[in-house]
Design goal:
Layout: H1 2-20, E1 26-35, E2 38-46, H2 50-69
Antiparallel strand pairs: 1-2
Helix pairs in contact: 1-2
Length: 73
């Protein structure tokens, strides 16, 4: 259980850092028009809100503290 908390904490810290720094982008494709074999698509790029990254950073730090505070059995 301790190892799981530590690994989860590190993963959350990395994901939170990437999102809060604006490095992570999400791309979505939307079909605008279709005329026979011809298709017109639009690619839309969005960046998640930095507040989500800060929440993940806090959760990762909390998970690391809990993992380090647990006793080995």
């Amino acid at each position: 259980m301790r190892t799981l908390a530590l690994v989860l904490g590190v993963l959350l810290l990395v994901a939170g850092g990437l999102i809060s720094a604006g490095i992570v982008n999400v791309q979505m494709q939307e079909q605008v028009a279709k005329l026979g074999p011809l298709e017109i698509n639009r690619t839309k790029t969005e960046t998640p809100e930095p507040a989500i990254g800060w929440v993940l950073l806090g959760a990762g730090a909390l998970s690391l503290v809990v993992g380090l505070a647990m006793r080995r059995r």
